[in-house]
Every structure is written in structure tokens, then in C-alpha cells.
């Protein structure tokens, strides 16, 4: 039949549309008709793919990102003449190898030359004493990297590297604008045929070529522009509708703002038996091994990222027309295959979904990728690829790794990967023996080799699990190796031999005259502090206080706060701190909710010292410390026996969701935590520690209890009244060796420090309570220069600071890491199905072990929601759901990524107009905002 499209290119766009409509009526799909040849005497347009590469080449003429290469080892006697002639024949045969590019009137054109000689470069690397293999590797890389000039050509580079008289490496490098991987296979195959024939003195029998690439380029434009583009675009727009977030891959580093294409690769081989099982299972599901492997790859990405929509870029050869099967040129296209996954789906179900996506894509394979990118116009960034971040490519046909041509043995040459166009590329091919080879190419700007090695292992385990249990939900398939996902340490609850009040008493025995507390001009020695605490305890017992009772302690920043806490503990009672600045209704609520029977405060005269609740609620028994004369009280402390589960304190959470809840913390957990912090800090007797935290936060307890159990001095400041200058002055005058401040406040303090100003006494500096941005960390490190710096993290429910990071020189993450567990705790990073994640993967942070709060006071329901049995540790251990996103680094350190609900808690530091620089997060105004 005569091709009705032979003169198609001569028609006007309207005529073309009309002709297509007519043919369609007659049941002829023009996409199925052969491509017609167009004359070479007219200006030849570029295909869409070429257009994009031409554009990119103008932007970055020296980039080798779009070079493709192959290399083979030739063993035996090499016939140089036959080799040279073979290359010349290939250039003569394939127009693409004789094509150059240019533009006229702002339009890019390709020019097919009658001849464009390609000189084979001969390089002798066989000099004795030299490492010819290393030299060859370097040469291959430099040949690959050397830029091409698209305007002058040629765009094929061939070199022969001589390693020894009978050992050579043949290297081919082409610009992607004239070829693709398929083309390389054509060229290699034809080269082998030609070379063998020339060695024998005969001619090779190669398939005829009816059209060239330029004919395809013309045809593609006409076909797509006559309506096909719209049809396919509509399909893809529907497929990729909605906002799909970028894949949250387990990056090892954030990488530069503008990523380079630096890459490396890792090759693994699946056992032949796995390949066979995969083929059998896929066949029974009507799917191909490509679909099966893609399904497993998507399952892997789902488990890593926890995102429902998984997008993977897949190259399609686009060689489904017979007349272009043997044409060298740039036909390959990229498709975005998106599948919705969930942990409840089995491998069978996911495979069915992937199959459907892949078949749909196959039917819409001609829409050039760039048209799609343009139509969907995703946010462009210099760091990440638009539409997808991960690529998968499967080569179905087994490639012969060894073959004979003439006197030569021909063998694949393994090139090292130096670049990666995407963050991660998985290539798979089936070897002649049926084994499946997987090549993981990754961007070294963001990934470390160890991470990809682990990931490849996860892929193999997941594939194995999926093949063994194709009906099992994805969330139940094992994929981590033993010990991954954070091993639960075993803890011994009996380790607590003494509780905090007892430990402080020991210090008082060792050095009774040492200063325990200082507030402004007055100080208390250890013995005086304990004397007062014991007197108050005796007084409380005399008035009827019983072990297990709760007292509201509503005191301004003073040594009395410590006296009251120690006295209550001495009696076996617990306290709930009440900030005198809080609104009365809130205090009332807390007292009632806590079931407090006692109230300890100051009567005072000044406004903020007065009892904020007047009159006290009926049942409550009040005690005003400033009106109490403790001097005559008997000093024999009541000896209430404490138990690890005896309640030590209740702290009310801010209650952003619903009513504030009282977090109940027992003595065992508190003692273990404080002892572990003292050890971590390496605190010594005689050190001077600034107390800064508001007494209604749990950090305040740590800030006095830890120094006191080491024999150090607590300097109680009043930051709500201090300016930054006054804080600095106190640090100097008091010779403060430890500070623990909110990040924003410390950053402000750092800004205040002159570059040459130092704080010589400062041994340790802790920030915590909220995320520490990287910039603030750098500022603090460079200006404050503490000998050791810590970032303390902790929900109140996990007892003050369950995780602490000791700062390193540099921080690569957005926020300072939160480090490792302190005390008897384990940290887990879990996915939505409560499965552990491997290091690098982002998930929700759960904290398990013994040193957790008992739960919420009188709220079994709320407690059961947030505190789960710890499935990873032994019986009895519990686990708290933090609501924070985090990931574990390769070295075990945990990085904080933000709140799981995206609402980062930032108390912030604000300078109030008209006032001196006040850390407003502690001021009354701020509290009003926070607590209403
Ligand atoms: P709270 O229970 O009021 O102490 O608040 C605990 C929450 O504050 C945590 O769940 C985190 O979201 C945040 N947070 C506390 N400390 C840090 C820290 N060092 N880095 C990042 N976030 C923190
Ligand atoms: Mg906290």
C-alpha cells in the first residue's frame, strides 16, 4: 500500500488535521502508518527531545551530563585497519553520526552532512612499569567528560586504549542529542559484525535503513501537533493530578543548594532462583518482570518515605515502529509512573496497580517529557528534579557479556559511574543465566555509599518477602536486617539505689558548708538548705500531710522553691508547680485536676508574690513560707520511704489540644534521669550553674536537682527581669560554668558578645525545649564558644530530656540533631504502621523504656492513647508517641525534622517595644498568649 503520509510534511497544519480526521473515519490510525522520508535539502527541525538538549547545551556548553558512553575490552590480536574501516562504515551508514546543530532565525535546525569523518583516537598505555588499568580508567573518564561542540561535530568520539600488545579497551562516547542507549547497542552490534567481516575480507550483511532520524523528527512534530499531543497530555494530567510531595529519601547530607551531577554506583546480583520466582509469579499475574521489580522498588520507597503516592521516572525506548528499529538517534522518552500505595496492600495488589499504570503509560508513550513538565509546571528547584526524584530502568534482553569477533574476545568493560542525573537510579537487567543484576546509581552530593548498600539489601529482603508471601500486607513484610531500626537496650529497674533527695543529702554530708543556692546577694549552704527543708517537712507532717498527697507550690523564683520541693519529697508527697503569673482560673483548674490537698506559697505584699487564688478553694490547706518561722521547728526529718513508683511531681502540659493534662513523674525515673545527666555533663562539686527555666517547666527541676546531687551551686536568676547585658554580667561576675537556656535566648546572647569577648569559666552550655536552627547553632558555637555544648530534647511525658546531643563542629541538618537517649530509654523511628525504619528514613519518634512519666494524672484514656506497651523491649516497658518527625543517622544520632503535624513549636524570643530586651517567652505577656 502506498503510504498516504508520503507528502504529509508538505501540507499545511490545517490540511494535516483534516487528513488525519479523514483517515480516522476510515479506521486508519496514522500513528500506525510508517514514517515517510523527507528531503535533506530543506531545513530540518529538531525532535522535541533534541530541542530540550539543544537548549540545555546553550546554558551549559561544558556539561557532560548528556553524554552517553560504552566501552569493551578486546582481548587478542587487534586489526587496526578493520577497526578503522568499521567505524567509517558506521558513520557513513547512520546519519545521526554525521549530524550537527545550529539555528537560523531563532529556530534550531539539524544539518545532515554527506561526510563527517570520525578519527579514532589511539592511546598507548602499555609502557612498562605503568598501571595500565588505572590509566585506562582515567582515560575513559576524561573521554566521557570532554565536551562536544554541537555546531561543528562530530558528536561521536571513539578511542582505543592499548593496555598491552593483545589487550585493548575500545571506548565510545556520544552526545545524547544524536543517540540513546538503544543506539549504543545498535552501534556495538553492527561494529562487531563489520569488524568480523572486514577481518575475513568480506562485507557484513546489515539491515537496510528506510528513514533517518530527521524523518522521525519531522513526523513526530506533525503527528503530535495534529492532536495527538493534546490527547496524551490529557491522559498524563489526569494521572498526575494533585500535589504529590517530593519523595523524602534518606539523604545523608543536605547537599549544596545547586546540586552537581556527581554520582557513583553499586552493583549487586540477585540469586538466579529469585529471578526465576519473580518471573513465574509475574507471569501468573499477567505482568512482566519489569512490573514486578518496579512494584518492589515502589514498595521499598513507600516503606522508606511513608508517602502514599510514589512516583518513579521510567525511560521508554520508543522503538515500537519497525522502520526506526535500527536507526541511531535520540528516541528514548521519560515517563512518570505514579502508583498509590498503602501498608494494607499486598504485593499482588500492588503489582496489579503497577501493571495498570505501566500499561496506561505504554499507550501514551509519545508525549515528550518536557511537554509534560511544562504543562504541569511543578515548582522548579536547582536542587531537585521536577516531577520525580528517582528513576527505574529495566533492560529485558539479556546482554552477552563475552563474544568472539574475528581473532578477538570481546568482553564488557566496567566503567565507574562518575555522575548521576537523578538522586537515585535503579537499573536492572537479566543476565544470560537468568540472574537479575541491579545497579544502584546515586548522587554523591546527598547519599553515602553505606546508605545505598543498606538500601540495596532492603530491596533484596523485601523482594524475597514479597515473593514468599504475595498475599501479605506490605506493612507486615520483613525488610530490615537483625539489629536495624534501633535495638532495644535492656534496663534494670533496680538500678536506682537512691532517690534525688537522698543523693542531695549525701552531698550535704560530704561538704555541709558548700554553697548550694544563691539568689542575688544571699546564699544558702547545703546544710542550711536541708535544715530548712527538714523543718518544713516536719511542719507539714505536724499539720497532717500524708505520703502520696499532692501540694501545689506557687512561689516566685527563690530558694524556697527548692526548700518546698525537698520538704515534700522528704514526706513522700509530690508537688505540682504553679506559676504565680498564670491566670487564676488555670491555677484553680490545675489544683483541682491534680487532686491537690495542699498549697504552698508566699503571702507577700508585692503583686506577683501574693497568692493568686483568693480565697483558696475549700478543702485546700495553705501554707505561706514567708510567714512561717521554721527556726524553732524540730530538725528530725520525717523518714517516709520512697519507692521507684512514688509520685515526685506533676507538670501540666500546655494543652494545645483540649484541657491541660498533668504529667505524672515518679521518683525512680527522675533519679535515674538526673544521675545520667550528671554523668553526661561531667558536673563537679564546686561548679556554678545558672538556673534560668521557669519553675513550671520540668527543665527547672533538672536545673537545680542535677547540680545539687553533684555538690555544685545553683545560681537562681530571674531572666524575666534581666536584660541580656545583665545576664552576661552575671555570667562573668558569678563565674558561671553551666548554662541551660532556650535556643533563641542564647542566640541573642551570642549576638551581644563582642567577637573578642570570652566566657572563660563556661564549661558547658545546654539549649533545649524547642528546635535549634542550624544558623543559631553556628552563631552560638562561634561566639559563645562553650567547651561542650548540648542540645536537650524532651516531651514532658518522657521526663525532662530523654535525648541529648553533644554538639559537633558542623551540623548538616536544618535543626541541631537531638542525639542519643539518656538513662533507661530507647528511641525508635517508626512508620505509620509502627514498624521500625532503617537509619536515614524519616518517621515519627517514639521513646521507650523505663524513664517515662507514669502517664496523665487520672486520665487512663489519654494515657493509653500516647503511651503504648513497648513491643521492642521486654514486658513491662512502655513507649511514648512524641508527635515529632525524626530520623536516625548512620552513626545512631537522631535528627529532629519538625512536628509530625507540621506545627513547629517555637516559643521564640521577642523584644517588647519600650522595654529593655526581655526574653518574652518567660514574660507574663507571652504566657497570656500561650495559655490565654
Ligand atoms: P514539652 O512537652 O512542652 O517539653 O514540649 C516537647 C516538644 O518540644 C517536643 O515534642 C518537641 O517538639 C519540642 N522540643 C523540645 N526540645 C527540643 C529540641 N531540643 N529540639 C527540637 N524540638 C524540641
Ligand atoms: Mg520539655
Task: Summarize the SSE layout with pairings.
Layout: H1 13-25, H2 48-59, E1 67-75, H3 80-93, E2 99-104, E3 107-112, E4 121-124, H4 132-145, E5 156-164, E6 167-175, H5 181-200, H6 213-239, E7 263-269, H7 272-284, H8 289-305, E8 309-316, E9 333-340, H9 347-362, H10 369-376, E10 390-395, E11 402-405, E12 408-412, E13 424-430, E14 436-443, H11 449-468, H12 500-510, E15 515-519, E16 522-525, H13 526-542, E17 550-554, H14 559-570, E18 574-577, H15 584-594, E19 598-601, E20 621-624, E21 647-652, E22 662-666, H16 667-681, E23 688-691, H17 699-708, E24 713-716, H18 724-733, E25 738-741, H19 743-752, E26 764-768, H20 774-783, E27 788-793, E28 803-806, E29 820-821, E30 825-830, E31 842-849, E32 855-856, H21 860-866, E33 867-869, E34 878-888, E35 894-899, H22 924-931
Parallel strand pairs: 4-5, 10-13, 15-24, 17-18, 17-19, 19-20, 23-24, 25-26, 26-27
Antiparallel strand pairs: 1-6, 1-12, 2-3, 5-6, 7-14, 8-9, 11-12, 13-14, 15-16, 21-22, 22-32, 27-28, 28-29, 30-31, 31-34, 33-34, 34-35
The structure holds adenosine monophosphate and magnesium ion (MG).
Give descriptors for this structure.
932 residues, alpha/beta, five-stranded mixed sheet, 32% helix, elongated, disordered C terminus, binds adenosine monophosphate, binds magnesium ion
Textual characterization of the structure:
Helix content is 32%, strand content 21%. The chain is an alpha/beta fold and 932 residues long. It is elongated, with a radius of gyration of 37 Å. The structure holds adenosine monophosphate (AMP) and magnesium ion. The site of adenosine monophosphate has 18 residues, from strand 27, strand 34 and strand 35.
Amino acid at each position: 500500500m502506498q503510504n498516504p503520509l508520503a507528502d504529509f510534511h508538505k501540507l499545511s497544519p490545517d490540511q494535516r488535521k483534516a487528513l488525519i480526521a479523514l483517515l480516522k473515519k476510515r479506521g486508519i490510525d496514522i500513528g500506525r502508518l510508517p514514517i515517510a522520508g523527507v528531503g535533506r535539502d530543506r531545513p530540518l527541525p529538531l525532535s522535541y527531545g533534541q530541542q530540550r538538549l539543544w537548549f540545555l547545551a546553550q546554558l551549559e556548553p561544558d556539561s557532560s551530563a548528556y553524554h552517553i558512553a560504552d566501552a569493551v575490552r578486546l582481548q587478542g590480536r587487534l586489526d587496526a585497519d578493520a577497526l578503522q574501516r568499521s567505524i567509517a562504515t558506521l558513520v557513513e551508514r547512520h546519519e545521526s553520526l554525521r549530524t550537527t546543530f545550529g539555528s537560523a532565525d531563532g529556530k534550531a535546525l539539524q544539518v545532515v552532512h554527506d561526510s563527517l569523518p570520525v578519527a579514532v583516537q589511539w592511546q598507548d598505555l602499555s609502557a612498562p612499569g605503568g598501571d595500565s588499568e588505572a590509566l585506562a580508567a582515567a582515560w575513559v573518564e576524561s573521554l566521557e567528560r570532554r565536551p562536544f561542540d554541537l555546531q561543528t561535530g562530530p558528536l561521536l568520539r571513539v578511542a582505543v586504549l592499548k593496555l598491552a600488545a593483545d589487550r585493548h579497551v575500545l571506548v565510545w562516547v556520544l552526545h545524547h542529542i544524536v543517540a540513546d542507549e538503544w543506539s549504543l547497542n545498535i552501534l556495538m552490534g553492527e561494529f562487531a559484525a563489520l569488524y568480523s567481516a572486514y577481518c575475513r575480507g568480506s562485507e557484513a550483511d546489515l539491515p537496510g535503513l528506510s528513514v533517518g532520524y530527521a524523518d522521525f523528527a519531522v513526523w513526530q512534530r506533525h503527528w503530535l501537533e495534529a492532536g495527538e499531543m493534546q490527547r496524551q497530555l490529557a491522559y498524563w494530567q489526569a494521572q498526575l493530578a494533585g500535589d504529590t510531595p517530593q519523595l523524602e529519601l534518606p539523604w545523608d547530607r543536605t547537599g549544596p543548594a545547586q546540586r552537581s551531577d556527581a554520582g557513583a554506583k553499586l552493583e549487586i546480583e540477585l540469586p538466579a532462583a529469585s529471578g526465576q520466582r519473580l518471573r513465574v509469579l509475574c507471569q501468573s499475574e499477567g505482568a512482566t518482570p519489569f512490573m514486578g521489580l518496579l512494584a518492589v522498588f515502589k514498595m521499598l520507597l513507600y516503606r522508606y518515605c511513608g508517602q502514599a503516592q510514589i512516583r518513579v521516572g521510567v525511560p521508554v525506548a520508543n522503538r515500537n515502529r519497525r522502520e526506526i528499529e535500527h536507526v541511531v538517534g535520540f528516541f528514548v522518552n521519560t515517563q512518570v509512573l505514579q502508583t498509590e500505595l498503602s501498608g494494607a496492600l499486598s504485593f499482588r495488589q500492588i503489582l496489579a496497580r503497577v501493571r495498570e499504570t505501566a500499561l496506561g503509560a505504554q499507550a501514551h508513550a509519545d508525549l515528550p517529557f518536557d511537554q509534560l513538565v511544562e504543562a504541569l509546571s511543578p515548582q522548579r528547584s536547582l536542587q531537585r528534579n521536577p516531577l520525580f526524584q528517582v528513576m527505574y530502568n529495566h533492560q529485558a534482553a539479556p546482554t552477552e557479556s563475552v563474544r568472539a569477533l574475528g581473532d578477538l574476545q570481546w568482553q564488557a568493560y566496567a566503567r565507574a559511574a562518575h555522575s548521576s542525573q537523578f538522586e537515585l537510579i535503579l537499573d536492572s537487567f537479566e543476565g544470560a543465566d537468568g540472574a537479575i543484576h541491579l545497579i544502584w546509581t546515586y548522587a554523591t552530593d546527598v547519599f553515602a555509599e553505606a546508605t545505598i548498600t543498606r538500601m540495596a539489601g532492603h530491596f533484596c529482603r523485601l523482594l524475597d518477602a514479597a515473593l514468599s508471601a504475595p498475599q501479605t500486607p506490605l506493612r507486615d513484610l520483613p525488610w530490615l536486617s537483625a539489629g536495624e531500626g534501633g535495638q532495644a537496650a535492656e534496663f534494670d529497674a533496680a538500678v536506682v539505689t537512691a532517690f534525688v533527695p537522698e543523693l542531695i543529702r549525701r552531698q550535704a554530708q560530704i561538704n555541709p558548708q558548700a554553697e548550694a543556692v544563691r539568689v542575688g546577694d544571699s546564699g544558702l549552704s547545703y546544710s542550711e538548705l536541708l535544715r530548712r527543708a527538714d523543718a518544713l517537712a516536719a511542719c507539714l507532717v505536724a499539720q497532717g500531710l500524708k505520703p502520696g498527697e499532692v501540694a501545689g507550690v506557687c512561689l516566685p523564683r527563690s530558694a524556697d522553691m527548692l526548700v518546698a520541693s525537698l520538704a515534700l519529697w522528704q514526706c513522700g508527697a509530690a508537688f505540682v508547680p504553679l506559676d504565680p503569673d498564670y491566670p487564676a482560673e488555670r491555677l484553680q483548674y490545675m489544683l483541682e485536676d491534680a487532686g491537690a490537698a495542699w498549697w504552698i506559697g508566699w503571702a507577700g505584699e508585692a503583686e506577683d508574690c501574693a497568692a493568686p487564688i483568693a480565697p483558696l478553694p475549700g478543702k485546700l490547706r495553705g501554707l505561706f513560707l514567708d510567714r512561717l518561722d521554721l527556726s524553732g521547728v524540730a530538725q528530725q526529718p520525717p523518714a517516709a520511704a520512697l519507692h521507684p513508683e512514688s509520685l515526685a511531681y506533676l507538670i501540666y502540659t500546655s494543652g494545645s489540644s483540649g484541657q491541660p493534662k498533668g504529667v505524672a513523674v515518679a521518683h525512680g525515673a527522675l533519679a535515674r534521669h538526673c544521675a545520667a545527666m550528671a554523668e553526661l555533663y561531667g558536673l563537679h562539686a564546686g561548679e556554678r550553674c545558672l538556673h534560668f527555666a521557669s519553675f513550671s517547666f520540668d527543665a527547672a527541676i533538672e536545673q537545680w536537682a542535677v547540680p545539687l546531687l553533684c555538690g555544685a551551686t545553683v545560681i537562681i536568676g530571674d531572666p524575666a527581669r534581666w536584660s541580656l547585658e545583665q545576664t552576661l554580667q552575671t555570667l562573668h561576675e558569678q563565674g558561671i560554668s553551666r548554662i541551660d537556656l532556650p535556643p533563641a535566648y542564647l542566640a541573642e546572647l551570642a549576638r551581644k558578645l563582642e567577637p573578642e569577648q570570652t566566657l572563660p569559666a563556661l564549661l558547658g552550655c545546654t539549649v533545649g525545649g524547642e528546635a535549634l536552627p542550624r544558623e543559631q547553632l553556628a552563631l552560638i558555637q562561634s561566639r559563645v564558644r562553650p567547651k561542650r555544648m548540648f542540645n536537650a530534647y524532651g516531651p514532658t511525658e518522657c521526663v525532662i530530656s530523654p535525648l541529648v546531643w553533644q554538639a559537633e563542629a558542623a551540623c548538616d541538618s536544618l535543626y541541631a540533631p537531638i542525639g542519643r537517649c539518656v538513662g533507661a530509654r530507647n528511641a525508635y523511628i517508626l512508620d505509620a504502621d509502627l514498624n521500625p525504619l532503617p537509619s536515614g528514613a524519616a518517621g515519627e519518634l517514639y521513646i521507650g523504656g523505663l524513664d517515662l512519666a507514669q502517664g496523665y494524672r487520672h486520665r487512663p484514656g489519654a494515657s493509653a492513647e500516647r503511651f503504648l506497651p513497648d513491643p521492642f523491649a521486654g514486658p513491662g516497658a512502655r513507649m511514648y508517641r512524641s508527635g515529632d518527625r525524626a530520623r536516625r543517622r548512620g552513626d545512631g544520632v537522631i535528627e529532629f525534622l519538625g512536628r509530625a503535624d507540621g506545627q513547629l513549636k517555637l516559643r521564640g524570643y521577642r523584644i517588647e517595644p519600650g522595654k529593655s530586651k526581655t526574653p518574652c517567652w518567660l514574660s507574663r505577656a507571652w504566657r497570656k498568649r500561650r495559655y490565654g
